[in-house]
Amino acid sequence: MVYEILGNVPQGYVHKQRKVWSAGLVTAPSLVLKLYDMYVDGTPPHDIAFIRQSKEFLKKEIRQGKIEPYLGLGFVILSEDMLNVARWDTKYPVVIKNQIYGYGQGLLGAPDLDTAKPLDIRSEGAFCIWELGIVNHEKNAWKRYLKSKRSEADKMQYLDSVIEGPL
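The chain above was modelled as a monomer; its predicted structure follows.
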């Protein structure tokens, strides 16, 4: 095997550490999502106004039937240009169903959800390596829930279990 043609990262790629903090819950009658704000280490997280706007955007998409609730629990990862919405599947509760929205920047370089549009995970990918740190935490929290009696208290324990800090 000739390895010199494999794994050659594009010239100019700079690998930047990410951090995450929990931005609360997005609640709708059929779905509750944990919202994570993921950002480049050394830069500030998204401001509270944008977090609020993200929650309203997600609620609107849920109301309009554009986000399937599946089991009704999951999480969202907000990054510098995407919203990754992950829900636990109804038929196979060990499977994450995710969909991604891409968004651009508006005036003065601020993130703008008015530009948000669904992206195809077949071309964009399901999760980046940083998001996988969050997914791993969520996997473990979900496994604990599945092993529990799945009571209301167990659901709340799942929703209260979040990851924060470096990824």
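The mean pLDDT is 95.
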